[in-house]
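Weekend entry, working from home. Most of the wet-lab plans are on hold until the incubator is repaired, so I used the time to fold the two sequences that have been sitting in the queue since the last round of cloning. Logging both here for the record. First:
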Amino acid sequence: MPTNGKLRISYLAAWKGDTENASITAAIFLGSDQLMSASAFHAGLVTPSEGSASIGIFHGKYSPLRTSADGLTVQHVSVVTTFSGYPTTGVIVSQLEAFVATGTYTVSVQFKASAGSVSVKDRRLWVEAVAY
């Protein structure tokens, strides 16, 4: 980023955990820093899980993981037992915007499980840098 600006980030994937009652989360990072929402920051509620998504009790079944205005969100789809992938055209993807200072940034989505493992497939990450 040659000047102060913002990053427009969109992410879409399918994910699942393999262990019942495990805490499984995902979050967007700039380098080693997890993104956080402005509303949570002002309310003093910023925690390591702020802006992250959690699978909860839907282990063993793929669920959509996507960006929202405040970070990542998961849409629980309890009736889906198999997932063959997203179509190449026509899937609606939300976007978040993060203000950044001049610099070079590595954008990633990181996963954490308290037990077992996390499976993620059909990942798509789009990043656009906009100077102002």
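Second, folded right after the first finished:
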Amino acid sequence: MNGWLFVALILVIIALVIFIGSIVVIIGPVKKTLTILLTYVNNIQKQMEGIQIQMTALTTTMDRMNRDVQFKKDSVQSVVTNVKQVGMNVMALKDSSQQATMNVVKRANQDEARKAQTEQWKNTALGILKRNA
């Protein structure tokens, strides 16, 4: 029985050597493939870092542009508001000057002495103009 045990042991050793050889034969190409895959992963990682840097720069630029647009929008709104206020002030001035003119005309029409004086000045001015013409 010792002989059979010895033969079985030799067969197990041969099977073990064949198994280990098979693993080495299979692992060699797999190792190369894994090395290539790791290289691709590293390259992709480097590209992602570049993309990340560009995204950060674009975000910064967009934020700066948004602030600039907001500033310009506020400036335009301020100008529009000021123009409206100037228009309202001009209308108030027009109303005020019209009221003052109407008061002057009303007072001039009520005062006969001033009417006569105004008529005299008008006639004098027309006389001077006719002589110089």
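Plan for Monday: verify the second prediction. DSSP finds two helices and no strands in the chain.
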